[in-house]
Amino acid sequence: MNKPHFADIARDLTEAIASGRLPVGTYLPTELELRDRYNTSRHTIRAALAELQQLGLVSRRKNAGTRVESARPRNDFRPSLASIDDVVQFGSEHRRVVQSTGEIAVSGALAKVLRCEEGEQWLRVSSLRVDRDNRRPPVGWTDVYIDAAYTDIAEEARANPETLISSLIEAHYGRCVTEIQQDVQAVSVDAKMAERLQVAPGSPALEIVRRYIDSSGITFEVSVSVHPAERFSVSMRLRRDGPASDSH
After folding, report:
1. Closest by alpha carbon to 118, among 127, 109, 129?
2. Strand 140-147 relative to strand 58-61: parallel, antiparallel, unpaired?
3. Which helix (H) or strand (E) holds 109?
4. 131 falls in which pLDDT band (50, 70, 90)?
5. Are residues 52 and 18 in the same domain?
């Protein structure tokens, strides 16, 4: 029997905290008790607990144990140039309007985009991004592909239109985003997408593919967004790491 990865243990403990089986204010079992429960090493348990601490779910003090501090992870992930907050800057200005959800078997070009095997099962959540008052044409269309096991996330996405799907996954399954890989390319809008976005077929647009990666290096979410050119811009600021040194 294979020993569990620390990320699997972190997810299991996060679900126990979120469900109330490990209530806020209580203490987790000791490292040795968790080691025996999961049939793994103490090093793996420490890595799992560090993951929970990073999420803000627990606090750890020497000789005092691991205390549950919150039932929901904090949302303070801020990568430098690859996040929706930093690049797309939707945040509080735009919301998600889910158009369809369902499990699909990936094939063809989509398998290459998701970097997965033909026939793999993914849950797809398709949405329009619109202004809060919904008085302007859509800002974009996004297909989000996630682990097919996360079936309840589809309804959570409908119920929480201003919360990132990655944040919903973190809150319900404890799968913490540690890296986002982003690819941007210019595309022409096809007829089907043109109707959705209320633009002319063949209009220029930007396609943004983001891959959300957990601490074990596994991609658990991929979003593919299409934004009409006249409704979208990217702004970023680049800085040197530090002042250049002069030698005399």
Report:
1. 109
2. unpaired
3. helix 108-114
4. confident
5. yes
Give the amino acid at 92: S
Considering the chain, what percentage of its residues have pLDDT values greater than 90? Answer: 46
Q: Indicate the burial class of 53 (C-beta count within 10 angstroms; 0-12, 13-18, 19 or more).
A: middle
Apex 78 CA angle, 242 and 164, nearest 5: 160
Collapsing DSSP to helix, strand or coil, 178 comes out as coil
Q: What is the pTM of this model?
A: 0.66
Pairing label, strands 94-105, 121-131: antiparallel
- Where b means 16+ CB within 10 Å and e means fewer, 204-222 reads ebbbbebbbebbeeebbbb
* CATH number of the domain bearing residue 90: 3.40.1410.10
What distance in Å separates the CA atoms of residue 87 and residue 81, rounded to the nearest whole number? 6
